[in-house]
Amino acid sequence: MTIALATIILYAKDMQRSAHFYRTHFGYLTTGEVSEGLIELKPAQGGAEILIHQAAKSLKLGSAAIKLSFSVPDVAQFVASAASAGLAFGAIHQANGYAFANTKDPDGNSVSVSSRQFRA
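and the corresponding structure tokens:
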């Protein structure tokens, strides 16, 4: 049996705003159409797809229970490019042979970019 993480479902207060965030800053492809209560985002260059689902008013968003981490070969270059597109990241941290930086999506979910996958 083969098992792979293929889809992440994110709950959003404003589905279109969240879809725009992941399309603009992380290169996901989407029509923005709501179908079966979801907006589907496909990765342009591989990885898990994201489904945006309307959050119930009672759902508390932005908890630290999940963090999406996107692999990039050059964190500093990605962070600089994101800044020019209006997305601010925190400080770039150095770890065991890789770097990472953190930000939040429109609903307060933690998002990072990391070069860990590309370390020697």
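(Above: one complete record from the training split.) The longest helix spans residues 15-26.
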